[in-house]
Design brief:
Layout (H helix, E strand, L loop, with lengths): L1 E9 H10 L1 E2 L7 H5 L4 H15 L7 E8 L2 E2 L5 H10 L1 H11 L4 E9 L7 E2 H7 L13 H11 L11 E6 L2 E2 L3 E6 L10 E2 L16 E3 L3 E7 L6 E6 L8 E3 L6 E3 L1 E5 L4 E5 L11 E5 L5 E3 L5 E3 L7 E2 L1
Antiparallel strand pairs: 1-5, 2-8, 3-4, 3-7, 5-9, 6-7, 10-18, 11-12, 11-21, 12-13, 13-16, 14-15, 16-17, 17-18, 19-20
Amino acid sequence: MKFRFWTVQKKEVLDIIESEGIYHPDFEKSGYLKLRPNMTKLYEFFLETYNSQNDDDCKGLVFCFLRGNPKGLIPIEDYDDFKAFITSARPALDSLWKNIVTEDSVIISFEKEVTFNSLNLDLNDFQFMIPPVVDLPEFPPNYLEYLVRMLQSGRVIESAFPCNVIQAHVSDIKKEEIVGVYPTFDLDGYKIWDVCDYGSGRFIQEDPPEIKYLGRTFYGVRYRCGVCGEYMLKSNCKAERKVVATVPTMHGPLHYSSIFFCPGCAKFFTTADFGIPLSVGRCAEFDAGGDRLLFMNEFYKIEMLGADVIDNR
């Protein structure tokens, strides 16, 4: 079975792949490890474990990103999906991302036949293993020993504190496996939802003078915007068999069944407490800021056509 991997690499890696047809990493030549010698033993542990599990003798590993949940892996379909997913995990990824993303780095997506053990583990678990290991309340006692034992035995790790960003490892990247090469991005400059301090009582309901529509997905409702007072529009969504979808926030995934848009201040709103009306519970906000296209999650996308197409039907 083929699976799509995502990795951040220096542009020189692409030059090697182009000239030699394949890239074999070598930890002894790693510039990253030269700058962070405290990581050497951890990297050597993963290399030794990978070689043991796969009867290999490679000299280094390509560290990759996958998406997972408690039930298994969820394919990352394209660059926009990857961008939204990585951004949604910013609290867990922020420090790592700043270390691996540089001016001369790119994002490489490639497909491999998965006939090997890629030592998949949640990124939070990997970061827990970084020396010096510190006992944290989110992780049970002897958790490091548990991770080592599970990795060395080739078994699936059930993370005690998952962020659902899965770190995977491969021994090479072949030219014919590459699906796409994309620019890196700054997590600080990529907009995500945030939970607002205001909420209960800010969004009042009044009968609007007329029903407005925005494109084919949003329709007028009785809610007034809690920021500017304009009547808002609403869209309901369906994800598979459930009336629920997910958007990223600084506080983790936000689940919702409907979304509101204010044409006055170009903001999106939904309840931060799933199942509680916007007029009662806390509010989550996304400032569109003129964006034409807003990617929500792996389930579906909403295209915003702009306030200029609002009309009465």
